[in-house]
Amino acid sequence: MKLLNYKAQFRSYKMLKVLSILFVMVFSFGKVATAQEKKQMVRLAKIKVDPVQLKNYTTALNEQMNTAIRVEPGVLTYYAVADKSNPSNITILEIYADTATYKAHIETAHFKKYKETVKDMVKSLKLVDVTLLNSAKKPGM
Q1: Which segments constitute the ABM domain (predicted)?
Q2: In sequence order, what are the residues at sequence separation of 6 or more whose Cβ sits closer than 8 angstroms to the Cβ of residue 109?
Q3: Rounded Cα gap, residues 97 and 100, in angstroms
Q4: Which residues, 6+ apart, have CB-to-CB distance to 50 below 8 Å?
């Protein structure tokens, strides 16, 4: 009888040990992800473009965005959208690894080329720093 009790206690101890390790791992990894997200710089760029030059602006924007994503590891995400009722009102969601990455980004040749190309196309620009509350997407997207 004592042997059965001992085996049951030993199994309970092993299970408690495994659960404790899993608990620590889950919360440790969660803290790492949260810390990385807190370092990220997230910004909305609200742009009003001269409607006559919208096609040329979009071409320049696409070139800049694709180049930045391809060659700058810290440029994480760009989403550019146009207002359906007024397509010359564009909003861009930009996510950078951190502020230093953003500062380096605006000094790159491709970003300076973009700014020079669009300087007479952009009627107004408003930059809004935001906090990413949450994100969800399907795997592989």
Answers
A1: 41-132
A2: none
A3: 8
A4: 57, 88, 120, 121, 122, 123
Structure tokens at 22: 């899993």
Which residue has tokens 């042997």?
Answer: 3
Determine contact, residues 102/40, Cβ cutoff 8 Å: no
- Reading the block at residue 67, the tokens are 């180049």
Taking a C-beta distance cutoff of 8 angstroms, is the pair 86, 124 a contact?
no
Measuring CA to CA, how many Å separate 118 from each of 10, 81, 95, 98, 123?
71, 17, 21, 25, 10
User: Could you tell me the pTM of the whole model?
Assistant: 0.73
Q: Is the dihedral of CA 24, 26, 28, 34 positive or negative?
A: negative
Q: What does the alpha-carbon distance between residue 25 and residue 46 come to, in Å, rounded to a whole number?
A: 40
For residue 28, what are the β-bridge partners? none
Domain 37-130 top-level CATH class: alpha beta
Q: Which H or E element spans position 72? A: none
Query: Cβ(124)–Cβ(45) under 8 Å?
Result: no
pLDDT tens for 32-85 read 445 456 799 999 999 999 999 999 999 999 999 999 999 999 999 999 999 999
CB 131 within 8 A of CB 34: no
* Interatomic CA distance for residues 50 and 31, integer angstroms: 45
